[in-house]
Amino acid sequence: MTRFVDVGNMVRWAAAQGTEHILAEMVGYVEDDFRRWEDFDKKPRVASHTPFGVIELMPASDHETYGFKYVNGHPSNPSRGFQTVTAFGVLADVSNGYPTFVSEMTLLTAFRTAATSAMVARKLARPDSKRLALIGAGSQSEFQSLAFRSVLGINEVSVWDTDPAAVEKYVRNMAPLGFDIIVASSAADAVRGADIITTCTADKAKAVILTADMIEAGVHINAMGGDCPGKTELDPAILARGDVFVEFDPQTRIEGEIQQMPADFPATEFWRVLTGQAAGRTTAEQVTIFDSVGFAIEDFSALRYVRDAVAGTDFFDEIDLVASPEDPKNLFGLIGARAPHLIR
Ligand code: NAD
Question: Where is the signal peptide (predicted)?
Answer without folding.
Answer: none
